[in-house]
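job 3f2a | input accepted
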Amino acid sequence: MSRDTEVSEGALLWEPSEEVVANARVTHFLHWLWDRGVTAESYDDLWRWSVTEVDAFWDAIWSYFKVVGERGDGPVRAGGGMPVDGLSWFPGTTVNYAANALRRAAEAPDEPMVIFRSEAGGHRVINGRELCMQVAEVRAGLARLGVGRGDRVVGYVPNIPEALICFLATASLGAIWSSCSPDFGASSVIDRFAQIEPKVMIAVDGYAYNGKRFDRRGVVSEIEAELPTLAATVLIPYLDPASTPEGLRAGISYADLPATDHDTLEFEDVPFDHPLWVVYSSGTTGLPKPIVHGHGGVVLEHLKALSFHQDLGPGDVFFWYTTTGWMMWNYLVGGLLVGSTVVLYDGAPIDLWKMAADTGITYMGVGAPYITSCAKQGEKPGEQYDLSGLRGIGSTGSPLPPEGFSWVYEAIGKDLLLGSLSGGTDLCTGFVGPSVLLPLYAGVLQCRSLGAKVEAYDDAGKAVSDEVGELVITEPMPSMPVSFWNDPDGARYRESYFEMYPGIWRHGDWIKIRPDGGCVIYGRSDSTLNRGGIRMGTADFYRVVEAFPEIADSLVIDTGRLGQEGRLILYVQPAEGGELSDDLIGRLARELRSALSPRHVPDEIHAVPGIPRTLSGKKLEVPVRKILQGTPVDQAANRDSLANPEVLEHFIPPS
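job 3f2a | predicted structure (655 res):
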């Protein structure tokens, strides 16, 4: 990807064929609705009905998917307008996530449900019968350790089958799951897990990444020492089969956890809003916010999103490159809800396209930076591997520039849908994303998701069209947090999303909603570049800068404060073997002046060895801004939540 291959935003890249539309799962849903008196003729009609007749839509999702549970005869909603106001979904209904996730496994015991690959060469296939049996045995083992409804089980685990099995076993008991990947440092994990006071911790002895082995037994001991509520620490000998739990205060081996005399699946029926898991805000500053999602809300949202937006179902093989510390892991395992085979991968993103070909992946999800990197390196996986079975590619984590969209169709193939989606840990889903019913334009997310009344608000709190505004959600969704943990009066919850517009969810992104319903995301609104009154999201800036082949990565910071314009500082990580020369600085300035505006030419440009990113790949814009404004590094950013904390020192301003 270079400046010579720039693609204009809005260039048409893909249109669905009549066959694709006819076979789409959302088309089947439309026909099902027609039989029940709902006459939506198009995606836009369906979206408008879903956000206008909110109760009818979510009730239809329950009925259409034949959710395993007791619906009862209660209303869809009761209480306040939003969860923070006391809203409850489906009062009187009982459900269990695990019962729904394992339905297909029980119905098709010989079909593969889980495929596992690792960088180190690990390879396992688990069929439906084996998955159900292993979940049942671990469930009984956890119960033997005293785990029951409402208890917390935490995992310090990579993306391996044991993580999935322990999560499903926990959910089947009505207990609450939470996980961190083992690349998190001890203090980062303690900051998360200590808040929820777990009863059992599942942990690995170590992991491998990019050809290196990392022994984490010492870290596990540190974490255990700070979690006094633990009744047991279950050690998985993942890095070294000879590892034992010796030295752990409450250690047992994973081999001793399953109760092999209990291989019958059982599920605890819980209320719709009963906590399923706790996920965390990025935690780059302060204690991470522990976000609680409910069983029923996640079941309905992931059934809807994966079936109608990713177009997944039985026969599909679903993969997303993620760790257990990112909400995309929770989204990935949701593939089981729609009957798909899920692919779990542990390791560095090496030869992912080859793995897609080898395992028959039909839908492959990655972070936007991975696509951008492949494009910049000139990769052509469609020529190297047989990817003919690939029907869709997902991209998330940060805005994908139009050139990234175009590269997918040039380098992989024309007969697939690039599903760029935007959402967040907060709702554990994408609320702007793809649809197989609609054309795809470069740099444009195709639609607002069903059931997600996403709007762009101006400064006065009014909805605007074809203008950049604050991304808000004006109607509730079942996968909005049930609560934050240890937030009895909802103060932290309200402050996080509802402070700017009372009763309206403000997500913190800039969005433009086009007249055709397509959406463009411009980055975080709290890291806006405000130059001479011209506000711009950082995504526009990165698109220009990172099109230069001499630049591997970049970070732009506006140091201005309220009522006071600051300096615009650009940090660039040169490509391998490159340097930030005077010539490159001049060309950058000229291109930014031409592509954006004279006001967006940086006051300073600095070369740095790396751009700080969170463990889930997000650039550290706001914390670096705080560092530049004088906040000490350790107050501005939590080093243990970063993939490369060592680079922070290069952003400290000279004294």
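job 3f2a | The mean pLDDT is 92.
job 3f2a | closed
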